[in-house]
Amino acid sequence: MKSIIKLTRPSHWVKNLFVFLPIFFGQKLFDVTLVQNALMVFLAFSFAASSIYSFNDIIDVEDDRRHPVKCQRPVASGKISVAVAYCIMILLLAMSIGVLFLIKDEAFRWSTIAVIVIYWLMEIAYCILLKRFAIVDVCILSVGFILRILAGGMATGVVISHWLIMMTFLLTLFLGIAKRRDDVLRMARTGIPVRHNTKRYNLTFVNEALTITGSVMLVCYIMYTVSPEVIAQFESQYLYLTSAFVIVGLLHYIQLAVVDEKTGDPTKVLLHDHFTQCVVVGWVVAFAVIIYI
Hints:
mainly alpha, about 0% strand
């Protein structure tokens, strides 16, 4: 059982909380039916992502066996056979599609299933080929988060703002580049590329890319909080105050990347870094108070 849990990486399911953003920003967080629909999408994406993790470990089994850390993965270490991993992958995909049939509205259900299928196929292509191309790899990961938001919106009937799509893409691109920075540092220490495309990144490039994406995201967020349509939607002129959490959060994450060199896994940062947790919770509470009270 431990090997199966390790293979499916349930700790990474936290990424799928993005599916709740449409109802949060759409001020529908207290609509029980819509929250239930969003929960089904959360489970669907979680199962789909775990299916992809299983496939990724199958595809990378030979490379993982030569890696000092990844050699401990269940498939690479032999604790789970390739055949069993394939069965787990297919079962998880079936569970992902199956859970969406709990959504009562047929239109919402089928549009969400379409997004899940697109996400799964895109990730399969990523595992087989696309992750070998620098820049394309982090962009694919960011598109995956946009699909989470679109699915959350389709399952609940909430219209997705272009601001939300832009900020999600920029934030996840920023996090993806920070993760590649960790790969570059590890390659510099060991002389072994962590990924096939690691040689197409270097420290100068990732540092400048972090600066660009972080800066553009911050400007985008501030423009969002002071835009007339957003002020009219939420009937508040105080959204700009939440920018403080975004600024502090970005600075701290850059500090983790550049000073502490601990951005290899954004999920672990979120789950274990208390400062990051406080910033995220503070932003959620502040934003919720402004738009709901």
